Amino acid sequence: MTTTDATATADIPDNQALSRMYTLMLTTALADQKSVVEAKAGRLQAAFYPVRGMEAVCAALGEVLTPRDRIVSTYRNLGDALAKGASLRSIMAELYGRRAGLSRGKGGPMHLQDPAIGFTATTGIVGSGLPIAVGLAMASQLDDDGTATVTTFGDGATSIGAFHEAMNFAGLWQLPLVFVCQNNQWGEHTPIASYAANTDLASRAAAYSIPAEVVDGFDPMAALSALRRATDRARAGEGPTFLEFQHYRLTGHTGTADFSYVPADELKAAMLRDPAPTFRTWLLENGHMDESVVEQIERRARQTVDDAFDYAAGCEFPAASDIYTDVFADDTWVRSLHND
What we know:
This protein has eleven helices and nine strands. By secondary structure, the protein is α/β, with parallel strands linked by helices.
């Protein structure tokens, strides 16, 4: 097991890649914040799970994943969906339960998916996405298609039986799979030390002979380096990798949840490393972009977010007849209901 931090990063990518990463991080953060406001106002009438604190890893995923690679995410999925190429318009429409959404308005925030772009599934049950990812990776291996599958999950999922089953299977079959553990230090309302006897999550990979790294989850360059190595290994047929990204959840468990239980000093320290603002400072101080370029990115990100919310609010809801769409392979059963 190795540790990757800000002092052990890959070569810095070109400015186009840095621009894409900052755009994705900022767009995720702004859309996340606005979704929380909408949820608290009662206009977003579904459980929304903020991703604040995870934006750096999402941006890195956006750079290393190819259109043919696949990802299985969780209900905390906004950044993952953007990373895989989903439009913010379609994401927001789904959050509002509209027909133009990624899941046609029937999945809501917990069930975004678009198989056409490799955003294969999201799951609302903790840990349940890992066996799905194993199946996808096994199919890739059997097809010898040279693709990687990534599954993202929180620290709490490492205590679920499905996690250990998936790790064992992936290690045994040497599957082209990357386990991305977003360790945000909280299992819903419980600090990690109160539910895990061993809080060194990456060390669990050794039991399944899977290489592991502990990575600074606030640092997009460290995340990019680790993810690039892991996805390259997967595509080359060298087996799975477990990456533990250590950061901190900067909001409550849901968009409307109280999080006064979070120690104030911990949250204050974590906020100093808020990924998007920290990356902005890094870009400027290291001469990768000047202020005018950064401000242009920020204007476009705000416009993208405002446009997506306006678009979603104006979309129609699913029709009652849509209840059977995407449920059955054909309409035989539906027609039999009407014939009765």
